Amino acid sequence: MGLGEVEALARAAHEGQTDKSGRPYAEHLRAVAEGVRARGGTDEQIAAAWLHDAVEDAALSEEWLRAAELTPRTRAIVLALTKRPGEPPEAYARRILDTPGARLVKEADLAHNTAPERLAVLDGATRRRLIRKYATMRALLGLPDD
Fold this sequence. Notes:
single chain; 146 residues; 64% helix
């Protein structure tokens, strides 16, 4: 499956969903994919960026992902980035670090999630909670502060 097909699939899967700021969810996916590309990511990582929230958000099933015409590396990255209910942040970060290519995709995801223009539209309590959450994940992944 080529990147254009992955993008179209991700856009369709997340159709009607919005992010925490009320924007169409596909804008976040595009920004993460562009962030991966700008950081020198491979096509496999860019494909994973488009799909990074699909299983977690139940836009696509894990069964679909396992059967999809994606490379094993792309599938592994998407699965590594899929948070599991009740999973401690440390276990989530360890899985990302243990999966080749996943850290770069998560770095691009965190960068977009903490973009000042995105955070500015959130209420103060939500903004503070998310800033703490994302800072913790950056530290667990060994990423520098933005």
